[in-house]
Structures are given as C-alpha cells and as structure tokens.
C-alpha cells in the first residue's frame, strides 16, 4: 500500500470525531477562494459556481470561484495544500487528483495534505456509438472486436481518465482489444465520433449525452447504479453482467490543519447550500446525483478510492 493510501486511511479514521467535537461559531475574516480544477464554462465550473453562490449567502462573505485546471486536478490541490489553514481557501476535490498523485509519486500527499469538509455530488458516465453503428449495442461492439481484433477504436476525455480506464477494464475482462484515442475533453470526442473518427466514445454523461439527445448517437451503456431518468433505454453495466459502478464523486476540501471549529462551520454552510433549489436544479440538468457525506465519511471515501485506484493502476499497468 502506498503512502497516499496509508495516510488516507488514517485521515478517514480521525476526521469524523474532529468535526463532531467542534462548535460552529467560526466565521471567515474575508472572502473565500474556491479553487475549481476545471476550465471556466464547463459542467464542473457551472455546478461549483452555483454552490458557491448559495454558500456566499449563508457564510456572509463572497465565495469566489478561481479556475485552476491542469494535471487532473493536482495543480489546484497542490495550491490548496500550500495555503494557510484559515478557512479562506477551499477546493473542489476530483477523483482524478488521487490517480495522478499515485501515478506520478508526487511529493505531497493526496488526501493526506488536505482537510475534508464534505462530499457533494457524483458525475454520471457512459459510452456511446453513432446511431446504427452497432445495432446490437455493446454486444455488437464486442462481437466486431472479436471478429476484427485491434481495428475498433474508442475515445475518452484523456489518458487515464475515467472513460479510458473503465473501457480498458471492460475490454480486459472480455479479452478483446480496441485502440484508445484520447481527446481534450468529452465534447471534442463526441464531435470526433460524429465524424466517424472513432467507433465509440466514453466519458461523462454531461459531455457525451447531448449527442444522444440530438439523435446522432446511441448509448452502449451507462455506468451508474440505476438507469438514468433522462435516458431510460440505456442499460447499466450491472444489467450487462458487470459488477461495476463508476461515478466521479467530488467534494470540498481545505488545507491541512484547518481548526476544527472552521471545519465544522464550513461543513454546515456548504451542506445548507446544497439544499438550494438552484443548485439542485443544476445537478439535475447535468445528470449528477447528490452524494452528501460529512467530513469523516468523505475522508473514508477518499481512503477507499485511493486503495482502489492503486489496485487499478497495478492491474492495468498504467503509466503517467
């Protein structure tokens, strides 16, 4: 087990008692910067801005979104880890930051060098193909992959993204091969699919779902625990025989050594902000599901995610 996974386990064990002991009298001395590790204008940016707006009203200070994309979220988390533990710098924590930290053996620990505040939501994922390309859906993709080894291709939002790794896991289990084509975002991959540059595209529903809505693509499968209300015809991986559910849970984290009273106050404010009608509507519009967890439960999730990511990296032989 890596240092990241070991420290994540310790963090999960210690976080909950600290939050429960704390009082909530703390208030920030000025505006709060919320680091979002994704570019402005994207789904994550829109969702976090909605949450920040609601939290601002409750905290009594502006919660200002600062976009800091790069390296799967590590750039933002590294900046957070170096910030003062005064509650005025927070960050959205993406799962991808754990993966990159493990792959690159980074000098700082994720999540060891953060204070988990709360879990917020999870992003849905799936895979699509052009309408009519595989009339039998996923079964047709696999059949052609077996008949013509190595000729099919699938896109994803990037190397070592959830789309890439989940498809790699499925193909490994089925003992078939397909060429992975990374793109700079799900929307770019969806356009490549429409141009017949790839045979399938895997990624977040918010990025590839519009192609289905527009009638250009059809679902091969979705990776949520249940079928998505917007597309009830799309089968889940579990329905197709895979014991696999893939989402991208994210939450709010603070620098290490944040005082317990600040941790508790920020938790309470953002938990209340999550109940805001505009924020809930934003989640629904982007096919995200609320995944609230208090600080201790969120720390435990990060610990389990670090362990599973480490195992996946070893199993698939991933490289940075």
TrEMBL record:
Residues of the signal peptide: 1-22
UniProt keyword list: Signal
Claim: Signal is one of the keywords in the record: yes
Matches recorded under Pfam families: TctC
UniProt keyword Signal present: yes
Family: Belongs to the UPF0065 (bug) family.
Protein name: Tripartite tricarboxylate transporter substrate binding protein
Lineage of the species this protein comes from: Bacteria, Pseudomonadati, Pseudomonadota, Alphaproteobacteria, Acetobacterales
């Amino acid at each position: 087990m890596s240092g990241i996974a070991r420290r994540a386990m310790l963090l999960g064990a210690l976080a909950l008692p600290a939050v429960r002991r704390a009082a909530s009298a703390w208030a920030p001395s000025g505006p709060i910067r919320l680091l979002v590790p994704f570019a402005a204008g994207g789904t994550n940016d829109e969702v976090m801005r909605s949450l920040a707006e609601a939290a601002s009203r409750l905290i009594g200070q502006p919660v200002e979104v600062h976009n800091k994309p790069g390296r799967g979220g590590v750039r933002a988390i590294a900046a957070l880890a170096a910030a003062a533990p005064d509650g005025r710098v927070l960050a959205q924590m993406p799962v991808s930051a754990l993966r990159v930290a493990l792959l690159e053996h980074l000098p700082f620990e994720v999540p060891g060098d953060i204070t988990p505040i709360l879990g917020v939501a999870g992003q849905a994922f799936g895979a699509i193909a052009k309408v009519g390309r595989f009339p039998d859906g996923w079964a047709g993709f696999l059949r052609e992959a077996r008949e013509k080894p190595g000729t099919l291709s699938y896109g994803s939002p990037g190397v070592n993204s959830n789309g890439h790794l989940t498809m790699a896991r499925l193909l490994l289990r089925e003992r078939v091969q397909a060429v992975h084509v990374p793109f700079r975002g799900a929307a770019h991959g969806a356009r490549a699919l429409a141009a017949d540059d790839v045979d399938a595209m895997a990624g977040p529903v918010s990025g590839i779902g519009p192609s289905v809505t527009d009638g250009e693509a059809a679902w091969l499968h979705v990776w949520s625990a249940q079928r998505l209300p917007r597309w009830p015809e799309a089968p889940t991986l579990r329905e197709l025989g895979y014991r696999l559910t893939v989402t991208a849970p994210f939450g709010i984290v603070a620098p290490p050594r944040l005082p317990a009273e600040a941790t508790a106050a920020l938790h309470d404010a953002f938990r209340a902000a999550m109940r805001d009608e505009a924020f809930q509507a934003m989640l629904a519009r982007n096919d995200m599901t609320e995944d609230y967890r208090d600080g201790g439960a969120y720390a435990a999730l990060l610990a389990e995610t670090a362990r599973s990511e480490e195992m996946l990296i070893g199993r698939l032989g991933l490289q940075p």
